[in-house]
Amino acid sequence: MEPVIGLAVGQGTGPELAAVFERVLNRIADTYSVGIDLTRSERLYHSYSSLKAGAGVERIRELTRQDADHYAEFCRTRAALGVPAVFRTAINAQSLYLVRQRLRAVKVDVIGPPETSLLLVRDEAQGFYTGENTHSPDSLVRTMAFSREITEQIIAFAVRRARQEWPDGGAERIIMAYKFHLLDGALDAWVAESAARHGVEIDLFQPDTVNRNLIEYGPRPRTMIIAGNEWADIMHVVLLDRFGSERQENRCTENVYLHPDAAGLVEYQTVHGSADDLAGKDTVNPVATVRAAAAIAERHAGCAGAVRMVERGLETLGRQGVATPDLGGRHSTTAVVEALLDALEPVALAEP
Q1: Membrane-spanning regions, if any (predicted)?
Q2: The pTM is what?
Q3: What superfamily does domain 113-245 belong to in CATH?
């Protein structure tokens, strides 16, 4: 039976990147002589720019809710059907975080070389980024929550993931970056209970303390940071730049759903946004999307070596100076993808 992969597309450059994803995934599948089916959401989800185009606050709220309802149901249905992964282009953040709250999402990214890597686990299921807005004529009240259950679920996932990343002992240090001083001591107690339950030590720090220590010392080898989005959303791109020598435009990452309704479903996305100003210009950087296609093919479709194959192709493009304008090149999105597909060579044949 052929593996099935989900595809969800937002406005802005979403349709262009979805086409890149399909083309690269199909080429990888052909190279490995496997079949991969795509199941695509029938809704084109809004970006923030498309929402604001000619819409007032009430209309934006309604469209946001519709997008969140539809995408959450798409994910639940894919998970129930056994679909292991979805590739999603950027959509409006408010809709996205409503889905992440409902389905208890965590974002996972490994930053830096394997021997010293930093594992970032972003808590997307609770806190300020989640919640509901209540409007009055001259004010907006945002109500959000933290819970013992979700905190425990995220820590349990993070500990498991660290042991997968580093099988010979897991993380050497676990740090949690939260504004816990605002939570009446409740988060401190939950973290201590969870750490004892899992037999690990967890250092719970204020975000500014985490920043100061990273600036002063850098991450120790095999450090895992579990962080609320209030810190992690801002710092993700900084961590990529400082410790991974990577730009967000080139990076894909994964979101894992922990709610039973979607448990096991992994969503891949580009780290960059919808780039509405580039829509239709054929200049959006396709590298993150290409990497997402390779990761999905290797991890969920049996194409062992696909990631290395694509990375070698990208290295070839780098030597040739083939890049979109944001990376200092003069090539279109289409030209970059064409050059990459020409450079792809199965790893088994490319090994010395």
Answers
A1: none
A2: 0.93
A3: Isopropylmalate Dehydrogenase (3.40.718.10)
Instruction: Provide the CATH topology of domain 1-104+250-352.
Output: Isopropylmalate Dehydrogenase (3.40.718)
Tell me: the pLDDT tens digits for 40-55? 999 999 999 998 887 7
| Burial of residue 62 (number of CB atoms within 10 Å: 0-12, 13-18, 19+) | exposed
**Residue 198: other Cβ atoms inside 10 A:** 17
Question: In the chain, what are the domain boundaries?
Answer: 1-104+250-352, 113-245
285: which 2 tokens?
């950087």
Q: Is-contact 175 205, C-beta < 8 A?
A: yes
Question: What is the C-alpha to C-alpha distance for residues 36 and 22, in angstroms, rounded to an integer?
Answer: 10
Question: Residue 333 contacts by C-beta under 8 Å, 6 or more apart in sequence?
Answer: 16, 20, 282, 283, 284, 285, 286, 324
pLDDT digits (tens, 9 = 90+) for 289-323: 999 999 999 999 999 999 999 999 999 999 999 99
What does the alpha-carbon distance between residue 273 and residue 47 come to, in Å, rounded to a whole number? 9
Instruction: Tell which residue, 122, 78, 129, has the closest CA to residue 99.
Output: 129
Residues 6 or more apart whose CB falls under 8 angstroms from that of 93 comprise 48
- Give the whole-angstrom CA distance, residue 223 versus residue 289: 27
104-135 pLDDT, tens per residue? 999 999 998 866 689 999 999 999 999 999 99
Q: How many CB atoms lie within 10 A of CB 49?
A: 16
